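hey
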């Protein structure tokens, strides 16, 4: 029997795949537990339409991420930190602080987990920070750290 998997099933396949399995296994395990549906022509067409829709959504997300990366490359985020003798800061500037300042200054909300700091920012100056917007798109953001 041919079955379209609705969820990932160990030893069978991933979601959206069409697999050939024994009738008993399909009737007694896969279909009752809603892990898959029978591969009828209607269900096959629905799967095809779903895959087309998923591809369209993925392309839109990629285009959105590229546009956001373009926008971020033009922006500079200014942060102020307490500075001791010799220009050393007390503590460091974290990705959360950068995310908060970006939201405050430019009305762009980016999750702190997407901001990648290679090294901790522990001194006054200008830095370039990577922002992971999409698995294929990484943007650059300028951060200017000023003392107060």
């Amino acid at each position: 029997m041919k079955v379209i998997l609705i969820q990932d099933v160990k030893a069978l396949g991933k979601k959206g795949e069409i697999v050939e399995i024994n009738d008993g296994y399909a009737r007694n395990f896969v279909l009752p537990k809603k892990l898959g549906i029978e591969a009828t022509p209607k269900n096959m067409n629905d799967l095809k339409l779903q895959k087309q829709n998923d591809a369209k959504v993925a392309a839109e997300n990629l285009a959105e991420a590229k546009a956001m990366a373009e926008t971020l490359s033009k922006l500079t985020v200014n942060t102020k930190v307490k500075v001791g003798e010799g220009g050393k800061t007390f503590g460091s500037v974290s990705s959360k602080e950068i995310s908060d300042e970006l939201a405050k200054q430019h009305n762009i909300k980016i999750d702190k987990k997407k901001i990648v700091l290679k090294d901790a920012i522990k001194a006054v100056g200008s830095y370039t920070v990577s922002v992971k917007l999409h698995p294929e798109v990484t943007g650059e953001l300028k951060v200017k750290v000023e003392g107060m």
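The mean pLDDT is 92. The beta strands are 2-5, 18-20, 36-38, 76-81, 88-93, 115-116, 121-123, 125-134, 137-147.
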